[in-house]
Amino acid sequence: MLVVRPAGPADLDHLLELAILSGPGFTSLPEDADQLAERLELGRDSFSGKLAPEECWYTLMLEESDTGDVDGVGSVKAAVGLKRPFFSFRLVNNTQSSPFLGVKLDHQTLVLVNECTGWTEVGSLFLKADRRKGGAGRLLSQSRYMLIGAQPDLFADNVLAELRGVFTPDGACPFWDHVAHKFFPMEFDDADRMTGSTDKQFILDLSPRHPIYVELLPEPARAVIGKVHPQGVPAMALLESEGFRANGLVDIFDAGPTVSCGRDNIRTVRDARRLTARIAEEVEAELPALISTDSVAAFRAVRQKAVVEGETVILNRETADALKVRSGDTVRVKT
């Protein structure tokens, strides 16, 4: 059975393997053991309630219960931009006209902004290639919203997700090569690493002070603004199915899009019900349901068959054991 569970320091080797597999541009999964170890310690303290809510960063692992294999990772960062700025480019539409000439022109510009301070971020969604079928990605993605729904007061009213921008098969990034690199004279990987490991002052120091006119950029750069890396297309579809929409912000290095949704309007947050668990030896149901515990501290999630009867949900013993719940416990269910 696939189970989504909290990550902790013992998962370092698993997380490092996933970071290496994720490839370039996946800022939240750096190929740096020290950074990843620090993140896992932060995750442990987040789940245990040792940190202030806005400081928490919850990392989740997708695990095969029979083998213990870890095949995917996802995360929820309770608040971004509080200790370090959360920079983006905003695509701004500008209209200029000359009544004398009878000319009206529409221009797009990229403007550096820091608009999402305090928002919750869902991210780090990555699965091994052989797990990207059969609903594993949907389980891992939706588990993040079940976590938010378990204790909504720990998270912000607005939730965002950043998607990786376009890279060529040989690893080149058109937007970086033609635009961002002009302002940041370093390798993409170095800028990417510094974004996650510093206070981002270098971005404020070196970023363009004036709007960048999109029409003046080379075609390879224009073509990828707001576009998603091919590996990120399924993740984008999952986000859109939950109600997330592009909000006009793009990443300053690879121009990948940012999408957002009100916390309480996320479909899984809104539709999941709190029910009382009852355990039976056998459960007959046509379709599986998304089921999670009802607390952040003991969070676990699965997709298994269950029968809803009024305010009760009937689970089989294997499902209950995977969730570590007993009859009478409250769980959250989305059918």
Key terms:
335 residues; six-stranded mixed sheet; alpha+beta
The backbone outline, from C-alpha atoms, is elongated
Mean pLDDT: 94
- Report the C-alpha radius of gyration, rounded: 22 Å
C-alpha end-to-end distance: 18 Å
Poorly predicted regions are: none
Main beta-sheet strand count, sense and barrel state: 10 strands, mixed
Q: Which strand order do you get reading across the main beta sheet? A: 1-2-3-6-7-10-9-4-5-8
Q: Helix count? A: 10
List SSEs in N-to-C order: EHHEEEEEHEHHHEHHEEHEEEEEHE
Q: How many β-strand stretches?
A: 16
Strand share of the residues? 25-35%
Query: In terms of quaternary structure, what is this?
Result: single chain
**What proportion of the residues is helical, as a percent range?**
25-40%
**Structural class by sheet pairing and helices:** alpha+beta
Task: Please describe what this structure looks like.
With 335 residues, this protein is α+β, with helices and mostly antiparallel strands. Helix content is 28%, strand content 30%. The protein is built from 10 helices and 16 strands. It has helices spanning 12-22, 33-47, 136-150, 174-183, 188-197, 201-206, 219-222, 233-242, 267-271, 317-323; strands at residues 2-6, 57-64, 70-77, 88-98, 103-113, 120-127, 158-162, 212-213, 245-250, 257-262, 273-280, 288-293, 301-305, 307-309, 312-316, 330-334. The strands form 2 sheets. Strands 1-2-3-6-7-10-9-4-5-8 form a 10-stranded mixed beta sheet, with helices on both faces. Strand 14 and strand 15 (312-316) form a beta hairpin. The protein is elongated, with a radius of gyration of 22 Å. The two termini are 18 Å apart. The model has no long low-confidence stretch (mean pLDDT 94).
